[in-house]
Write a structure and sequence with these properties.
With 213 residues, the chain is an alpha+beta fold. It folds into two domains: 59 residues, no CATH class; 132 residues, no CATH class. The strands form three sheets. The chain has a five-stranded mixed β-sheet, with helices on one face. Helix 2 packs across helix 4 and helix 2 packs across helix 5. The longest helix is centred in the middle third of the chain and has 20 residues.
Length: 213
Amino acid sequence: MVRLWCPSHIHLAALDEDIIVLDVTADRYSCLLEANAHLSVGPAGAILAADEEVAESLLGASFASRSPCKLTRPVIIPARREVTPSATPRRSDVLRAAIVLLTATFAFRRKSFSELLHPPASSAHASEGADAAALGLLLGAARTARPWVPNEGECLQRAYLLRAFLAGRGVRTDWIFGVRTWPFSAHCWLQIGDLVVGDRLDRVNRYTPIMRA
């Protein structure tokens, strides 16, 4: 066995016989067909290749390095719960949500994928704890304000906007990216610990997590 490590911008996930690669810098997913028989994906970006030939293939594709990554990779916590958005959010929260979502939409369009992953500036003063009822009110406000946002986009944009809004209200979230195969599909959502925020538990559990940002 040959020990390797993922570079900081590379993330791997094993799905049945295949290995999915997420290259954050290139904003690209790749599928290594039947690679699960030749390498194993460990925690913190560790890789065990079956032999030197497999190792050289990974190194040649820039999917691996012989040196450990200096950045610590956060552990991805399995999703087990979800928050129900309130049907009666406060008007003041809806107004704040509309302003933040619109502002974040313009920022989203100017950023690369890797830049989008940077935590919102306001998250430096946010905490990971949140009362379920209060969080439900904030999610209800964001959902009510969403129709006012032009070209809302797919899950990437929706999660980015919601993350910015919650950070501004003192709630820090993790951004989870997941994949599935045959056919290939990728999805992303927000979590606080094992709590799914702004999405459905049954939907996110169809995906295998590949990255936590």
